[in-house]
Amino acid sequence: MVLGRRFFAVVAPFATVQDDIGLAVLRSRWRGETGPPIYAEESAAAWLAPVLGEPANIVAEKDLLATLAEQPGALAILPFDHLSPVYKALTIDGVNILSNRLDPADWPLVAAVTLQGPDVAILGDLPDLQEAITPATNRDPDRLTTLIMTGVTAMARGTAEKMEQKGYTYPAAVISDTLRAADITHVSNEVPFIQGCQVNNTYMNLILCSDYPYWQALEAIGVDIVGLSGNHVNDFGREGARESLQFYRDKGVPVYGSGLNEEEACRPLRLEHNGNSFAFIAALAWWPEEAWATATEPGACYFYRNYEKIFDMVRQLSREVDVVSVELQYVETYDPWPTRDQVEEFRALHEAGADIVTGVQSHVPQAMEPYGEDEPGGSGIIVYGLGNLFFDQMQSWETRTGLIARHTIYDGRLLSTEILTTVLEDFAQPRWATPEERAGILETIFAAAPEKGRLPPPPTPEPTPTPISGGEGTAMQAAPPVPASETPIADAARPGPSWPAPEPQPQDHFWLVRPTAPDANRLASSNYGFASTAGGRYRVHHGVDIMNPTGTPLFAPDDATVVYAGPDQEPHVFGPYPDFYGNVVLFRLNRAWRDEPVYVLYGHMNTVTVQSGQPVRLGDPVGTVGMTGIAIGPHVHVEVRLGGTDYTDAYNSELWLEPLPGHGVIAGQAVTSDGRAWINGRVFVYRLDGERRLYRIIPLYADDAGIHPDPGWAENFLLADVPEGDYELVLRLDDRQFKQKLHVSAGRTNYARFVVD
């Protein structure tokens, strides 16, 4: 008669490449016959001595992780139900204790208490004996849930072309068995389902959709839930979003992160499996505004407009369910290390009560950060970025690689996260990484993990992703990110250089029209604005970026003369070094400002259709959007230079670009009483339209001699294209906050000044 069983797991620290150990080697190391050592947790030592022999090394569970950290290659054995995300559970001869399909007879580290003899029935019913072996097992399959979470899915462009050629389930063919085996399989689908969607595999097409039959690929992997926080959910407008949401409803598949209105989009999805309760939340923390749901229109839940609401939900749900999972479509980067802001905000979500925080924005695998019970926020894991699942980005090794997170939840607690690794082939089909490829992927993300308790210092990244060639279809050439400044950026807010005071009555000078036509995107990216480093990632920005597909026409911003048109190369270098801006056009406006010449630079152009010395009129075509030079994704860099054409003559072009209809500009200062500009602070902009909702977060200007405030406004923070209305501005300098209310009028600059010591 079996009274009870105890299952034990062999573990290493989470950031371990090794996946498996043979039983013979394990037994030898357990006994101390070979090294490195295997440490037995105290109860494991008692239970497993009859199975493995007497252990050579016994360590209290509270000291186990520190002991492993001190001895590279050391392993430990502890009870299955004592697993924690800070450990990696190894397989034994290929058998996985975390599998929801495990045959208990196949697992070697299990011990049982049995009764034998004529009085078995009597002894087995004794309450004291039953209580001593309670629970009957520490690995009950009816209390276990496996949750698989995946990265970017966008079955469009090159992926769609391959699906049309090779079948609608082609992307899922290799990995489907593993994904379908999970109890809950998650997909983050960036694009809408539109009936009759036409394949458009033109270079860097950014208007994306999937035709209805493409659902077969998701069905093949056993999708159970779909996160819809991607910034392409409204690529086919609000009606397209409604159609796509109805498509999911007709399929009976729960979605979250998007909805028919903002309230629905931000609503958590609650599920239960094997007694484990879950709440899933998803939000979009990036542009474009057209993708954000409103009170009455469909779209994604915008993170910053619902910032406090989301944090309140996380806190409340953490008291109501076992596992809270939050996923964010954050700022897209092509680096394995997360940005400083990403680290700060993902950690804040974990500390608020999220057990799993996942970035679904990154097109390359990013770091992971596991937590134990005694750490801030308790047991859980932050997955900064999973990379791609079904998306056609074959342009580099980094974008071809992907992660799949397989979480194991037992008896209401996240026990472990396994990292599955994939490599994209043929623009559409991920396969499992080879052992050598897998080791490289894991080593990369482990090395990119930020130090706990600190924000990461701004790195100087190598140019990534690495361009590669080969394969069929459209092989897109990716440009490297802008190198970071060599000057470190301190974590803490600090007073910086002396700063001018604003003039008593500064005048607006919105002389420039947008470089693109009204049917193209005309909004500048708020993630890497003027005088920003994008959270310490890149060189201080001297202009603004307006993103559009490659080939989008560009037009002259005003009546002007083309000073130069061509490559940013000697003897005509306009960036900090040759070819920084790729193909450029430099205009000198026909009118001067305060007797100073005004220059406007367009950078990263694909084609240039004007010549040096050529006069142009407002709205004349001058070339097309591209990503030449140092650029991530196709966009036009717009820069204003006053008085000269040097790289160090830069002023904020958003004080020169005419605001969009119904929108104004917020400009302001944050200075000390003796006139020094604050550095490393942020201004939180809340919209007051019946309720107080976070609208944007603006970084203060970086400390850089090459950028200048407007002579009239003397600003060191700015936010353009703000809808007319009432706002509250909150300046945050570390843990200090200072507030002002501001009414934004359309078509003008609206000013706020903070004087803080």
Number of continuous helical runs: 14
Q: Give the structural class.
A: alpha/beta
End-to-end gap: 75 Å
CATH class designation of the largest domain: Alpha Beta
CATH structural architecture of the largest domain = 4-Layer Sandwich
Under CATH, the topology of the largest domain can be stated as Purple Acid Phosphatase, chain A, domain 2
Strand content: 25-35%
Overall tally of domains? 3
Q: What general form does the structure show?
A: elongated
Q: Which residues sit in consecutive blocks of at least 5 with pLDDT less than 50?
A: 458-490
Radius of gyration: 29 Å
Q: Helix share of residues?
A: 10-25%
- Number of beta-strand segments: 45
Largest sheet: 9 strands, mixed
CATH superfamily of the largest domain: Metallo-dependent phosphatases
Mean pLDDT: 90
Q: Could you please describe the fold and organization of this structure?
A:
It contains 14 helices and 45 strands. The relative contact order is 0.08. The strands form 10 sheets. Strands 9, 10, 11, 12, 13, 22, 23, 24 and 25 form a 9-stranded mixed sheet that branches. It is elongated. Residues 458-490 have low confidence and may be disordered. It folds into 3 domains: 2-139, 3-Layer(aba) Sandwich (D-Maltodextrin-Binding Protein, domain 2), CATH 3.40.190; 144-447, Purple Acid Phosphatase, chain A, domain 2 (4-Layer Sandwich); 663-755, Immunoglobulin-like. With 757 residues, the protein is of the alpha/beta class. The chain is 16% helix and 31% strand.
